[in-house]
Write a structure and sequence with these properties.
Low-confidence stretches of chain A: 144-149
Shape of chain B: flat
Largest sheet of chain B: none
Distance between the termini of chain B: 30 Å
Helix content of chain A: 55-70%
Strand content of chain A: 5-15%
Number of helices of chain A: 19
Low-confidence stretches of chain B: 1-14, 61-65
Number of helices of chain B: 3
Strand order of the largest sheet of chain A: 7-6-5-4-1-2-15
Structural class of chain A: alpha/beta
Strand content of chain B: under 5%
Oligomer: heterodimer
Radius of gyration of chain A: 83 Å
Helix content of chain B: 55-70%
Mean pLDDT of chain A: 85
């Protein structure tokens, strides 16, 4: 692209700008003091072509309007691709109304209308867009001479700046994410410290559980022992009561007790004492009751004494055997020799019965004989002594009737009958009297036998029931029996062992002793129960201690569980932070990968860029530096090194003077421009150098200006902006700007 | 020519746009990482690519207006 004319109204500094007939091949100097409008001229080119300038982008294009004006216009005539000449016009007002038209020069019909359409067509016919224009064709002073590292410039030139900016942006985001991450991690650490400060004591919980189990087990043991002791205490109390009752029953019974009753009492006593001893044995306590005490000893002693009654009983049974013979209870053969009393009594009774029966018969016969004798005698008397009486008649009549039936000789018969009857009566009377005597003798004998039998029976009953009768009575009765052995053993029993049961005085002593023992037993029982009560109290105290220990353990567990819950809550808070943490971590990972990608892209760009520079700096550098430097090399870290012919080696930029550094950077920009123009193959091209010679000495400026034309055959038009030129004749056109001038009219 | 591979990637004179430059590199990098032995986190990689693309877009911060 070659610029032929630049016209504008109210653009930036200029109320009117009219530069025409610009040389197509040559250098155009734009000079003037600061604020004189030098850059405004090239800015007008950019405004006309792209609708934006180096200083004002599209969104702020109204700033291009001159101060105090409401609108601005521009018109540029340029030669584009295919060597075609175009005219582009553009206007903007304060309201932002933006219009543009592109014409084929000499043709009134717009080639394109509207800012966007014109922009698109300008890019097509010029061969570059605004960015490429800035990077390749508009070499601003700040890019070339900036004290900022050359790396920044190279980044911008190479096109890595967007990635560098993104990389910085990503790093900033990573830093923010990292800060957020650290904030969360610090919060987590703070919460974790709180959790650790809670001192959860995980092992302690197990210890407490074990201790609780032990305490509960101990309590169960204590409770069982208390219950067992209480039951035992109750049983001991009942046993004591039983001992007292049986003992007092024994003492209250007096001497009227039988052996069986004595044995029952003693057995009851013994049972009560044994029961007591058994209960006491279950206790691990010292007590006289453990062995049953004196009462047991005394009871045993009494039992032993009573046992000696067996000897008496043995003898009594022996005697009883004899009595059995007398009572007919024995089936021994000697019964024939010693007839049992019962048999004897039976025989006597039978005999007495027979005698009484016979006597009855005799009395009957006597009576009959007497009646017969009386009747016969009376009949005889009446008939003989009082024959005329009526009575006699009646008797006679009766007798006649009877004689008629029997015998007619009734008188003889009456007399005989009377006599016989009298005789019989006498006989019967005598016999009856004799039998009566016999009967009395038999009765007496029977009475003796019966008495003897009763006595024997009584003795037998005594012996048979000797265990159930009051012992003193039994002993007293036994001593009276006619049995020497029994008598002796009974007497001995009464005088020795049996005295306690039989003899009143001895019995009284024993009774007193028994009372004393019972009293002592009661005291021992009471003492034992006091010991039991003490033991129970001790156990209850121990149980209470275990309860307190359990309560303490439970409180500790509650405390630990509360802390665990608090810790769990804190853990939940930490866990709830994890998604945010992971989100930040993921964002960091994404941005780190993005950085790696942008770094890699930059590196790729720089690699390509280096290859380009290797060729084009080799072409441009010697021309611009009069052969002193030949080639530029850019390292991966964007450090520029330049090959010095004097040194015959690459030199770091730091080794060069500031002027040389800027000259080399200018050469670099020119090499890029050359590369773009050559690559674009768009034909001739203008180039704008905005104050490129800062820190250049006069000779270097001169040589550089001279070298510009030889950089590339297609770069034919140079706009060189500077404050002043030592040698204006080096330029084909000099445009002098002035701070005071609002209008500039130049024709080349 | 190497210069052409860089400068004429478009139909006409133009350096490749930043987006194209990045797409090309991201594509080759993804291919390289997929074929490498190291674990390739596709999601993270895709998110990173989308993030850079977003920033390279005209509304993104990295876009040079």
């Amino acid at each position: 692209m070659i610029i032929h004319s630049i016209k504008a109204t109210n653009v930036l500094k200029y109320a009117s700008l009219d530069i025409t007939n610009l040389p197509e091949n040559g250098k155009i100097a734009i000079s003037g003091a600061n604020e004189s409008g030098k850059t405004a001229i090239v800015e007008t080119i950019a405004f006309a072509l792209f609708g934006q300038t180096f200083s004002n982008d599209m969104d702020h294009i109204t700033r291009t309007i001159r101060w105090g004006e409401s609108s601005c216009t521009s018109e540029i005539v340029f030669t584009g691709l295919a060597n075609t000449r175009y005219t582009v016009t553009r206007s903007v007002d304060k309201q932002g109304t933006h219009s543009a038209e592109l014409f084929l020069t000499g043709n009134d019909t717009p080639y394109a209308t509207g800012p966007q359409a014109v922009l698109d067509e300008v890019i097509k016919v010029s061969g570059f867009d605004f960015e490429q224009y800035l990077e390749s064709l508009y070499l601003a002073q700040m890019e070339i001479t900036s004290s900022e590292s050359q790396a920044e410039t190279i980044r911008a030139i190479a096109g890595a700046s967007p990635f560098e900016a993104i990389n910085r942006d990503l790093q900033h985001e990573i830093d923010l994410e990292q800060a957020s991450l650290e904030t969360i991690e610090q919060e987590q650490a703070r919460i974790q410290n709180q959790i650790e400060a809670l001192d959860l004591q995980q092992d302690r919980l197990t210890e407490i559980d074990n201790a609780r189990e032990q305490a509960n087990e101990q309590r169960r043991i204590y409770t069982n022992e208390i219950n067992q002791i209480q039951q035992t205490s109750t049983k001991i109390r009942d046993a004591g009561t039983a001992i007292q009752e049986s003992g007092h029953a024994l003492t209250a019974a007096g001497q009227s007790l039988s052996v069986t009753q004595w044995q029952a009492y003693l057995a009851a006593n013994d049972d009560a004492i044994e029961h007591m001893r058994t209960q006491v044995d279950q206790l691990d306590m010292d007590s006289a009751l453990r062995s049953g005490g004196e009462l047991k000893h005394y009871n045993d002693k009494l039992k032993a004494r009573l046992a000696n009654f067996d000897q008496v009983e043995e003898q009594a049974h022996d005697y009883r055997t004899q009595l059995s013979g007398q009572l007919g209870e024995s089936s021994k053969s000697d019964a024939r020799e010693h007839q049992p009393l019962t048999t004897l009594r039976s025989r006597l009774k039978l005999r007495l019965f027979g005698q009484r029966f016979l006597k009855g018969i005799l009395l009957l016969l006597l009576t009959i004989s007497a009646i017969v004798a009386l009747l016969a005698g009376l009949s005889w008397l009446l008939t003989t002594q009082f024959p005329a009486s009526s009575m006699a008649d009646m008797v006679w009549n009766g007798l006649y009737e009877m004689a008629a039936m029997v015998n007619s000789d009734y008188l003889l018969n009456v007399k005989t009958t009377t006599l016989v009857a009298v005789i019989l009566a006498v006989v019967f009377l005598v016999l009856s009297l004799m039998l009566g005597y016999k009967i009395n003798a038999t009765r007496t004998e029977l009475n003796v036998v019966s008495e003897r039998l009763r006595t024997v029976q009584a003795q037998a009953d005594l012996i048979d029931n000797m265990r159930d009768r009051p012992l003193p009575d039994v002993i007293e009765a036994l001593t009276k029996l006619d049995h020497p052995g029994l008598h002796n053993v009974t007497e001995r029993f009464k005088d020795t062992d049996g005295g306690a049961f039989v003899t009143a005085s001895v019995y009284a002593d024993h009774q007193q002793h028994l009372n004393n023992l019972l009293y002592e037993n009661a005291n021992q029982t009471a003492e034992l129960r006091e010991l039991i009560a003490t033991r129970i109290a001790d156990l209850q105290q121990l149980d209470e201690e275990q309860q307190q220990k359990l309560a303490q353990l439970n409180r500790e567990i509650e405390d630990i569980e509360a802390r665990q819950k608090e810790a769990q809550d804190l853990q939940n808070i930490i866990a709830n932070m994890q998604p945010r943490l992971q989100e930040h971590q993921q964002r960091i990972r994404v941005r780190t990968v993005a950085q790696q990608l942008t770094d890699g892209t930059c590196k790729q760009i720089y690699t390509h860029f280096n290859k380009v520079l290797s060729k084009y700096t080799a072409l441009v550098m010697p021309k611009l530096t009069e052969g002193r430097y030949k080639q530029i090399q850019i390292s991966d870290d964007l450090q520029v090194r330049v090959f010095s012919t004097e040194k015959n080696d690459f030199a770091d930029m730091d080794e060069l003077s500031s002027g040389t550094q800027r000259q080399i950077m200018l050469a670099l920009r020119l090499a890029i421009s050359k590369a773009l123009v050559e690559a674009g193959q768009q034909g001739r091209q203008f180039l704008i150098l905005d104050e490129p010679f800062a820190f250049f000495d006069r000779e270097r400026i001169r040589s550089t200006i001279n070298a510009l034309s030889s950089i590339d055959e297609n770069i034919t038009q140079f706009f060189v902006i500077t404050q002043e030129f030592e040698a204006p004749d080096q330029f084909n056109l000099n445009i002098e700007c002035s701070v005071d001038k609002e209008e500039l009219v130049i024709s080349g | 020519m190497a210069i052409l591979s860089w400068l004429t990637s478009k139909q006409r004179f133009s350096r490749k746009s930043a987006i194209d430059e990045f797409k090309e590199f991201a594509h080759s990098e993804e291919k390289r990482q997929r074929s490498s032995d190291s674990d390739f986190d596709k999601d993270t990689f895709q998110q990173a690519v989308q993030l850079v693309m977003q920033k390279l877009s005209p509304s993104g911060k990295g876009h040079k207006s």
